[in-house]
Automatic annotation (TrEMBL):
Mode of membrane association: Multi-pass membrane protein
Pfam families recorded: DAGK_cat, PAP2
Originating species: Actinomadura napierensis
UniProt protein name: Bifunctional phosphatase PAP2/diacylglycerol kinase family protein
InterPro entries xrefs: ATP-NAD_kinase_N, Diacylglycerol_kinase_cat_dom, NAD/diacylglycerol_kinase_sf, PAP2/HPO, PAP2/HPO_sf
Highest taxon above the source species: Bacteria
Domain DAGKc, first and last residues per copy: 215-349
GO terms, molecular function: kinase activity
Subcellular compartments: Cell membrane
PROSITE patterns reported for this sequence: DAGK (PS50146)
């Protein structure tokens, strides 16, 4: 009969009222272990030991994280990353600090059937359970980001792993409960440095607005930008871009819709305007820059916009809760419309509503960020998205110079300025999520300081997504913003596209101006 290599005898009884309480808890813990050890669960005698073994060294959880990452769905990728970070926090807390602090002996396994003990029993201290901590951490991290259909099986598996640690004789129930608690706290604690984003930003329901929808898509005119969402020059022409894949799905699911694939050299804005003029609903397949142009056409012709993700980031589509072309088609067939704000930057000399308005649905930026975007675009084809961003951030903050400007009447040296269409919930150089798309406010964030800025600290702030640790950082909410730059032309990034604009600008919003198809929430 297998026995724990550690002594099963408890230490001498502890003294004092609180010690007596701990002794009673210890006896209850051992009683619960004996009941589980004596239990017979037909069909699980083989499953639970193997499940427990698969969780050794986090293999089960990191394998699950890899599978979630391969789905290419942003929510699932965030869930996988948050769960993995939570394990990285919980594991050393339990295995290095907790076990050494308590040094609890492993249970006696006399009552555990040998069929459950198929591998060598662990020799480390028992309290808290490291397997349970990793399970709780990963499950909590995934639950913060993933939809219930994904989070529920992960939580159920984590619970089964924790129970298996008792069922196979490796831990007392108290060890497992403590491990689960520490893991859950680690998962929830990731929100302190990386706030969990809501799955869908709220929009105003378009009450009383009729829209004609059909199962076959009659009345829909879809404009597809095939240059969006590609894998770079290395894969162009070999693998279809995200936009091309989405176009194929539209043709199959909405056969009566008119699908226009933009050809090289065609004017995107002209094609969109012509499509909106004859559409009951304008669909657009592409990234945020393409969606930006489509929003202008939809506003000019007063037609609802169906956003079909097909770009690299698809920030606006994801804010609506549309993460795939299939979800966009479902949103269209449901016929639910919402109204969202549209922000703009316009020359100070022009009036509101003029054709000189530069619209943006997500963000507008000037200063070092425009240089960062230019460099990232050039490097992305060779390095990939995130390495290109890191290299571009380092090069930009090493060489960039501030923009001298008057901002709402105050003269400043602006290193980086960010204007968001709505209040954003993250703190990076380009925040990506909002709770509402119809709040009527601009989210203004700015680094404005002297001629010199701590470069290393600034680079770190951009890469980790916390601009507020940079000297000179300011943030406020406003209904409008006026900027007068002391330069011949100001470079402005709108929804990822960089263009030149006059140096005197006024930022504002058209509240609830754009009608969009929204998914059921």
């Amino acid at each position: 009969m297998l026995r724990s290599p550690r002594s099963p005898r408890p230490a001498a009884p502890l003294r004092g009222p609180h010690r007596r309480l701990l002794n009673r808890l210890g006896r209850a813990d051992r009683w619960a272990f004996d009941r589980v050890a004596a239990a017979r669960l037909p069909g699980l005698e083989y499953v639970l030991p193997r499940l427990s073994r698969s969780a050794d060294h986090g293999v089960l959880w990191f394998g699950t994280a890899a599978a979630l990452g391969l789905t290419r769905r942003p929510r699932l990728r965030r869930a996988a990353l948050r769960g993995s970070i939570a394990i990285a926090v919980a594991s050393p807390v339990v295995n290095i600090l907790g076990k050494q602090a308590f040094r609890r002996a492993r249970p006696v396994v006399d009552l555990v059937p040998p069929i459950r003990i198929r591998w060598k029993l662990p020799t480390s201290h028992a309290f808290p359970s490291g397997h349970s901590a990793s399970a709780g951490a990963f499950a909590a991290g995934v639950a913060l980001e993933a939809p219930a259909a994904v989070a529920a099986p992960v939580v159920a598996t984590a619970t089964a792993v924790a129970f298996a640690r008792v069922y196979t004789g490796a831990h007392y129930p108290g060890d497992v409960l403590a491990g689960l608690g520490i893991g859950a706290l680690a998962g929830l604690g990731t929100r302190l440095v990386w706030p969990a984003r809501p799955p869908v930003a709220r929009v105003t329901r378009a009450e009383g607005e009729d829209v004609q929808v059909t199962d076959d898509g009659r009345g829909v005119v879809a404009v597809v930008n095939p240059g969006s969402g590609g894998g770079g020059e290395a894969t162009r022409g070999i693998m279809p871009s995200g936009a091309e894949t989405a176009a194929g799905l539209l043709r199959r699911e909405l056969p009566a819709a008119e699908v226009i694939v933009l050809e090289e050299g065609q004017d995107l804005e002209k094609v969109l305007a012509e499509a909106a003029a004859r559409a009951d609903a304008l669909a657009v397949v592409g990234g945020d820059g393409t969606v930006n142009a489509a929003a202008r056409a939809a506003l000019d012709h007063d037609v609802p916009l169906l956003v079909v993700p097909g770009g690299t980031f698809d920030h606006f589509a994801r804010a609506l809760g549309i993460e795939s072309p299939a979800q966009a088609i479902t949103a269209y067939r449901a016929g639910r419309l919402g109204r969202v704000d549209v922000a703009y930057a316009v020359p100070a000399s022009a009036g509101t509503g003029s054709r000189d308005e530069r619209l943006f649905l997500n963000t507008a930026s000037f200063g070092a960020y425009t240089e960062l975007v230019d460099r990232r675009v050039r490097l992305e084809k060779r390095l990939g998205k995130w390495p290109a961003l890191a290299v571009a951030a380092v090069r930009t903050l090493r060489h960039s110079e501030p923009v001298e400007a008057v901002v709402d009447g105050h003269r400043r040296h602006v290193w980086l300025a960010f204007v968001g269409n709505g209040v954003f919930g993250s703190h990076g150089a380009a925040p990506t999520w909002r709770e509402r798309l119809d709040d009527g406010r601009l989210d203004v964030r700015m680094i404005a300081t002297g001629r010199r800025i701590p470069r290393i600290r600034a680079v770190a702030a951009v890469l980790v997504g916390h601009l507020h640790i940079t000297p000179g950082y300011r943030a406020w909410r406003a209904g409008g913003l006026e900027v007068l730059a002391y330069c011949g032309e100001l470079r402005l990034a709108r929804d990822g596209d960089v263009t030149g604009v006059p140096p005197s600008l006024r930022f504002g919003k058209h509240a609830k101006a754009l009608a969009v198809f929204r998914p059921e929430t």
